[in-house]
Amino acid sequence: MNLILIGPQGSGKGTQAELIGKKFSLPTLSVGQLYRQQIRELTKIGKKAQAYVLAGKLVPDKITEGLLRQELNKKRYKKGVIFDGFPRNSEQNRFLEKLLEIDYVILIHISHKEILKRLGGRYVCDCGQTYNINSEKSERPKHKLFCDKCGHKLKQRPDDNPKAIRQRLKIYEQNTMPLFKHFKKQGKLITISGEQNVNQVFKATLLALRHKGTKV
Ligand code: ADP
Ligand code: ZN
Question: What is the pLDDT of residues 165-209, one digit of tens each?
Fold first, then answer.
């Protein structure tokens, strides 16, 4: 099974991708996470991508498609994959449609106000764990600004600053949202409200997949 998780910044699509992945024993593929890793490791792709990521702009499609092709070659994706943050425009979607068949697209929807609140409160750890100090208790770190899992100091993402956030939302509205119509026409779109707690969003997603005939 191949799924796409789509939604605005801060909608919790990364968190849900992980949960769905565990449930179905499928790997997740987050393009944003891959880029952050490439940037940390100072690879050729990382050096090309850095300025775009920092400014909240999409990395040019050719680079992203190369990164994806390289990643999808790995054995772990043989049985299927959950995409988080890809595709984000129609060119990327055309590229993806040539590579594999998508079963469902899960859109996690939240309001503009909620987006701004969440991004301002988002803290991340180098180990990959994400927290939110503006959300309910289960999403806050137990010890102020240190990771529950590994104890490292938490940071805000460099692109979670007001200017880059505005830029990312603009791209989402202008380039990503037009894809919804296309997925709807294909009968693949599942819309879930992201303004519930993590577990409720997950349950609603499983229920919707079951309605569509997926065995869960
Ligand atoms: P968010 O969805 O909150 O913007 P991500 O971690 O998914 O955060 O992405 C961070 C950054 O990585 C994006 O702002 C962009 O620069 C880059 N990126 C992620 N996905 C793509 C993509 N599909 N195409 C181009 N660039 C991408
Ligand atoms: Zn950690």
Answer: 999 999 999 999 999 999 999 999 999 999 998 999 999 999 999
Residue 63 within any structural domain of the chain? yes
Cα of 37 to ligand 2 centre, how many Å?
Answer: 15
How many Cα atoms are found within 13 Å in the side-chain-facing hemisphere of 103? Answer: 12
Q: Is the pLDDT of residue 216 over 80?
A: no
| Host domain of residue 206 | 2-112+176-211
Give me the CATH number covering residue 102: 3.40.50.300
Ligand 1, pocket-test mutation among 91, 110, 122, 159, most atoms within 8 A of CB: 159
